[in-house]
Structure to design on (173 residues):
């Protein structure tokens, strides 16, 4: 029985815990042989209730591409247009209604990325979906823990973009 719980605990334990996507050391990931990234969307890249990609997220994605990482958006979202729009804006293939932690969307992502599980990291904010699903397939799991943040980074970026637009609008009127 103890062994069973140990196994469950191991499956739920992220390989890395970070506060936001900016805190991830991609040089270290590369040194581990990781060259592909599966990205959750909601509350990982952008807030769940937002449909726009702010410049900071776009820049983050461009940097990863320049570093040579292949990327795939894998979301449990049931809104295909939202997922497609974000994927196309960022120039990344996307999967919606992924039913994480089931392995199907992870398998599909690996196929799209042309990568093996051991060459891939999954970045997401849901322990029971992103982390568990990745760990089951031996994909390197990075957990975004923004619970303690009063406002987490993706939301802060959104607010900054809003302020930027508002200041432009004010100036124009
Ligand atoms: Mg999420």
């Amino acid at each position: 029985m103890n062994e069973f719980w140990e196994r469950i605990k191991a499956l739920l334990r992220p390989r890395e815990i970070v506060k936001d996507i900016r805190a991830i050391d991609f040089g270290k990931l590369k040194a581990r042989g990781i060259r592909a990234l599966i990205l959750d969307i909601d509350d990982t890249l952008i807030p769940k209730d937002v449909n726009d990609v702010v410049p900071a997220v776009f820049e983050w994605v461009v940097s990863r591409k320049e570093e040579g990482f292949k990327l795939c958006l894998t979301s449990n979202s049931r809104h295909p247009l939202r997922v497609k729009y974000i994927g196309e804006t960022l120039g990344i293939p996307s999967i919606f209604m992924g039913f994480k932690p089931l392995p199907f969307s992870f398998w599909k992502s690996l196929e799209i990325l042309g990568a093996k599980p051991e060459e891939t990291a999954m970045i997401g904010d849901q322990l029971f979906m992103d982390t568990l699903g990745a760990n089951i397939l031996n994909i390197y799991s990075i957990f975004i823990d923004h619970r303690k943040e009063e406002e987490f980074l993706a939301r802060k970026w959104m607010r900054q973009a809003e302020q930027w637009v508002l200041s432009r609008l004010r100036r124009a009127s």
Observations:
- Residues 40, 42-44, 124-126 surround magnesium ion (CB under 6 Å).
- The chain has one domain: 2-172.
